[in-house]
Amino acid sequence: EAGVTQFPSHSVIEKGQTVTLRCDPISGHDNLYWYRRVMGKEIKFLLHFVKESKQDESGMPNNRFLAERTGGTYSTLKVQPAELEDSGVYFCASSQIFTGVPYFGPGTRLTVT
Amino acid sequence: DQQVKQNSPSLSVQEGRISILNCDYTNSMFDYFLWYKKYPAEGPTFLISISSIKDKNEDGRFTVFLNKSAKHLSLHIVPSQPGDSAVYFCAASLNTNAGKSTFGDGTTLTVKP
């Protein structure tokens, strides 16, 4: 069974540009989460999808971040326009049940210059 | 203010000895605690968890202890092996919603042969 995959693995963009990160959860996992780790600090929850619906987006930093999960399969996280402080590693995770322990993807390292 | 703290950024132990990783939390409402292990360029992998109704959970070489009155938990690895070298994250959640956990900054464990 394939794990959670994320694309790209690394992205370098200039301040003001747009970047879209993609996450493919484990097949059959209705719950999908996005997290961010900045500067080697804690991993912070961003949002939670149940199928295609946003269950909880309380961790989204501001309206420059837009997450979607059309069709309830893969998800995208768009940052527009990117700022320097958006640099970090963005993790996606999925779980089968609402209270299940999530399986993490390898992350996308975003560098904004 | 961080609700989950791992005050030791790094820990070095000799192979075969015990590794003890510590974690403190401030929110007394947390009811489910997890430890994740993370290798470079990979996402965190679930290691072991404990519910707030227990004070100990053991899985092979890994044991997690919870002291609710002190708001403290620890992960013991016995015996430590070089393959255990990784970053260990402590996480805490409300209503056993593991996907929306609050993480610590992580502790880098190095096990020397």
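qc> The mean pLDDT of chain B is 96.
qc> done
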